[in-house]
Amino acid sequence: MKYKVKELSSLAKVSVRTLHHYDEIDLLKPEYISDAGYRLYSENDIERLQQILFFKELDFSLKEIKEILDNPHFNKIYALNGQKELLIEKKNRLEKIIEAIDKSIVLAKGGLKMSKEEIFSTFNMDEVNKIKEKYAKEAKEKFGNSEAYKQSEEKGAKYNENDWKNIMADAQKIFGEIASMMDKSPSDDAVQSLVDKWRQYISKNFYNCTIEIFRGLGQMYIYDERFTKNIDKTKDGLAKFLSKAIEIYCNNNK
């Protein structure tokens, strides 16, 4: 399904002007432009907007949000878990406020005594702010203009068309080798050797692939359908197999 600007504006409760601005700064560009020149947003665009609004809630600047979402290591599941925890805490706070209002109604009828401290403590934002600060700090450390991202940008800028062909061919070769081992356990020594080869390939051609980064990549292979679809072109189920093999590799190389 595709959404016009006004439709997305109404759905997400953000202004058309805001969406136009996000387009202009390359933060949220519509996936399609109609023959008549209309911006048309896809389901993937809606998911990205969801992440933008979440990180805005954490007080990130638009520049920082773009760096995070464009980072090759961005983990959608991590962000969604953060959103869930923040919303649960906000829900708990609202429930306390509703409970305080109910008590205040009874108090107004003369049936209950309630201290001012008890009333105003329900409006405390400390717990909500703690969660916001925690995820803001973690997100900056994990995705915000990381050293790995810088390395990837610098190396990528030096490659010519032939270099890229060779790099992609090497990747496909490793995927093929791993796919040929899918009848074995992901923990098999031969499989684990190829997983290490894949990690070294990433470090050589893109950035220093630490265990933490490698673990995150393995998770994205199954949680991000774009990765899954691309990897499974070699063999159906390869993304899931490789993800599990990477998890085992990382657990054994902490």
Structure commentary:
This is DNA-binding transcriptional regulator, MerR family. GO terms for molecular function: DNA binding; DNA-binding transcription factor activity. Residues 2-71 form the HTH merR-type domain. The radius of gyration is 24 Å and the shape is globular. The longest helix is centred in the middle third of the chain and has 33 residues, at 76-108. It is mainly α and 254 residues long. It has 3 domains: 3-46, Multidrug-efflux Transporter Regulator, Chain: A, Domain 2; 76-143; 147-252, Orthogonal Bundle (Globin-like), CATH 1.10.490. A hairpin with a 5-residue loop joins strand 2 (32-33) and strand 3 (39-41). Helix 5 runs antiparallel to helix 7, helix 9 runs antiparallel to helix 10 and helix 11 runs antiparallel to helix 13. The protein is 71% helix and 3% strand. A 3-stranded antiparallel beta sheet has the order 1-3-2. The protein has 13 helices and 3 strands.
Keywords summarizing the entry:
254 residues, mainly alpha, Multidrug-efflux Transporter Regulator, Chain: A, Domain 2, Globin-like, 3 domains, 3-stranded antiparallel beta sheet, globular, transcription regulation, DNA-binding transcription factor activity, transcription, DNA-bd_dom_put_sf, DNA-binding
